[in-house]
Design a protein that fits this description.
The chain is about 50% helix and about 0% strand.
């Protein structure tokens, strides 16, 4: 296991945060549901590289990103349509469209692969942003591990109001019993690939609040108050154009 530590900061990092990050770094280095460990680490690397892409900068400056064409400055050896997904999601997520998503699928990416790529980007970004907030460098990427994806697709997942199929609240199968009661759309977003939903939310539970803690508006679970947490969260969401 490639160990994440925060020994290079004077800030006291909670033990549960560091341990969660270690677990997720290890999980991201291993084969997932649809991607190999090598592919997952390559997606992690490209999600970091995308922030310096010249084409993405030009698209960000344009009235519409879809009026500017070219080739992304890619670092990882991944299919061009994977690079397209990673760069647009990392650099200009607020202007993704359903038409863009449909074009991605028509270009050869399966919906399950798309979901896993999104999850790997989100988890890498969450942990990298945490390091940036501490004022330290992003943690070294993990070493890819050998193994085969499980290729599990829950039969309960189906097309609803979201772009990608997901498991509706109350329709969980026996393998997703841990998802019962997670009614919000954002909690359902990655359930087409259940292990990716679990992985992402295991980070959110410690970096923000767990589902149960979010329901307890009067509870005190962090060093700052719930009002302070929500003020910071709403400000960050507004700056990042977060639809949720």
């Amino acid at each position: 296991m490639d160990m994440i530590t925060y020994d290079d900061t004077a800030i006291d990092v909670r033990a549960d945060l560091a341990e969660c990050h270690r677990r997720r770094w290890d999980a991201l280095s291993n084969a997932g549901t649809w991607l190999t460990g090598e592919e997952r680490v390559a997606v992690m690397a490209e999600s970091r590289n995308a922030r310096g892409c010249v084409l993405c900068e030009e698209q960000n400056a344009a009235l519409s990103p879809y009026t500017v064409t070219g080739v992304h400055d890619a670092f990882a050896e991944l299919p061009a349509n994977w690079i397209e997904v990673i760069h647009h999601v990392v650099c200009d997520p607020g202007r993704l469209t359903h038409s863009w998503y449909k074009n991605i699928l028509e270009g050869g990416i399966e919906d399950v692969t798309y979901v896993e790529i999104i999850s790997v980007i989100a988890q890498t970004t969450a942990i990298d942003t945490f390091a940036r907030g501490l004022g330290v460098a992003p943690r070294p990427l993990p070493t890819p591990q050998v193994g085969e994806p499980t290729r599990y697709r829950p039969k309960e997942a189906h097309q609803q109001k979201a772009w990608v199929p997901n498991i509706a609240n109350g329709e969980e199968g026996p393998n997703e019993a841990d998802q019962v009661g997670m009614a919000s759309n954002i909690r359902r977003a990655l359930t087409l690939v259940p292990d990716e939903a679990r992985g992402f939310w295991s980070i959110a539970d410690v970096q923000y609040l767990s589902a149960a803690q979010m329901q307890d508006v009067g509870g005190s679970y962090r060093a700052i108050s719930r009002m302070q947490i929500e003020l910071l969260a709403s400000r960050v969401s507004a700056l990042n154009q977060c639809a949720y």
